[in-house]
Amino acid sequence: MNTEEKPSSQASALSACKKLFRWLQEYTRSTDASIKQRQISKKDLCLPDITSETQINGLLSIPDTDTAYGLRNNILLEVMYTTGLRISTAVNLYI
């Protein structure tokens, strides 16, 4: 396998090879076990950067709470921050 590829790409390619190997074994009665012995490299875990309290306070102070949209945006940001909602979930909330 190409070691320049990402681990997830290598894992996908190896998985496809293993499925093909199983199919070949089933339909041709092959006994070659070379692909079965290959190991899939694990994907590295990447943790997100931690946002500082100063950055959060700066973000929460941006909406103009004197307008209806600004108040809505402020509430949405507060809900997202306190509950850990993802943006894709938050935009589907009915407020």
From TrEMBL:
It comes from the Bacteria. One of its GO terms (molecular function) is DNA binding. Residues 46-95 form the Tyr recombinase domain. InterPro entries: DNA_brk_join_enz, Integrase_catalytic. One of its GO terms (biological process) is DNA integration. This is Tyr recombinase domain-containing protein. It comes from Snodgrassella alvi.
